[in-house]
Write a structure and sequence with these properties.
Distance between the termini: 59 Å
Number of strands: 4
Radius of gyration: 16 Å
Oligomer: single chain
Order of helices and strands: EEHEHEH
Strand content: 25-35%
Strand order of the largest sheet: 1-2
């Protein structure tokens, strides 16, 4: 008898910049921070991402600078509007 169970795997999407105009999809079998840490091991620059706690170690290294998620910024601006 086959047994099926749910998994929480991820496709991490990394978009380039004008000098590297590519999008890369990285699959990991789970949501652990080891996936992004391994993929971004040699990266230096700015990372625009959500508030996923798994990125915190990358920011502490000083070689990756956090750029906040626009969806969260827009939401707060929308909530603060006057009607």
């Amino acid at each position: 008898m086959l047994s099926y169970r749910n998994r929480s795997s991820r496709f991490w999407v990394y978009c380039g910049d004008p000098g590297h105009p590519y999008s890369v999809y990285d699959f990991t079998p789970n949501r652990e921070r080891a996936g992004p840490q391994a993929f971004l091991e040699h990266f230096r620059g700015y990372l625009q991402a959500d508030a996923y706690a798994g990125y915190e170690e990358l920011y502490r290294s000083g070689r990756i600078h956090q750029v906040l998620c626009w969806a969260h910024a827009r939401r707060k601006s929308y909530d603060a509007r006057t009607v």
